[in-house]
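Case study 2.
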Amino acid sequence: DIATSFEVEPAHIQIQFVPTAMSVLVSTLLPLSLLGLQVLEAAGQQQGTQQPEVHPELWLQECTASGCEKHNRSIVLDANWRWVNKGGQNCYTDQDTWDPTFCSDPAACALTCALEGADYASTYGVTTDKSNDGVNLTFVTKGSYGTNYGSRLYVMDS
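Prediction:
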């Protein structure tokens, strides 16, 4: 069974599928009229260049009545814990809001600001054990950029 949720805002559609503890975010702009044709423009989050994204490897077992089978997967940190910036300048302000200089609306923010990769161990306290079949989480992690509390992880399907 696949759990599905839809959330619609003006000029922004968010679709979430949760087949295996994994979420997919799709953002689009409203259709634009051009010479009587309907055009749908897609907007996606920009990829950061300052911190590479390397997903920690995780081995999982899928078991049925006939036995268990190992699958090599990886984990990914929720975007809410990551740094979003434009050329090294934070797109999120200290007042817990998006900087209007870069983010006049969600689509402009996605086109302007880049989502950086994660240093899982040093910044977020997320590691896998030596056989890569378990995840270790440190609730409070003091990293080079400050202190982080908690994390939200997803298992990637592939």
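The chain has two helices and 15 strands.
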